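Record type: monomer structure entry
Structure origin: computed from sequence
Chain ID: A
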Amino acid sequence: MVMGLPGTGKSTLAKLLTQKIPNSVLCSSLQVKRDLGYQRFSDRRKDRIYFELKQRINEGLANKKNVIIDRGICRAAARQEMLELVFLYHYQAFILECLCSVKTAERRIRQRIKKDKLINDPTDPRVHRRIAKIWEPIKVSRRRKNYPPVAYLQVNTEKPSIAEVVVPAKLSRPAKQIEKIIQDYWQG
């Protein structure tokens, strides 16, 4: 799961990982909104978008794909629900949190090109600050009874740097592969 506030680079990172990790599929909430023809986000539409995203994730996992989830999940309960989907298929889970300064995020948001009529792909830099107010910190426990291990990496897309917050020994090798993909991209 690639997460972060608007403008932190999560969609760019998710697309990169989808291209570089074999047998991968990208499940993006933004793409779901496009496919459903929603120009505006609303609480009424939120459930439909979330349901469709979960369907796509389920389909990818059922087809034994490496599912890259691109979604700015603000609430801890919603993150846990996404993890539960992954665990149903006994997959390993990686959480990549994209970070950067508010100034950089707002600059990136202002530079976004409007590709379509979506109003919910924010081009207003104030959206970063609004979502930051409701963002719940990501917490990953090293010991999780009855669950497969979860790796949690923080990716500073501004510096650039990667911090291994929680990487169980069982996930060390794939975590290093993900880090290498990201570092090669930055150097390339």
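Annotation 1: The radius of gyration is 16 Å.
Annotation 2: Residues 2-187 form a domain with the Rossmann fold fold (CATH 3.40.50.300).
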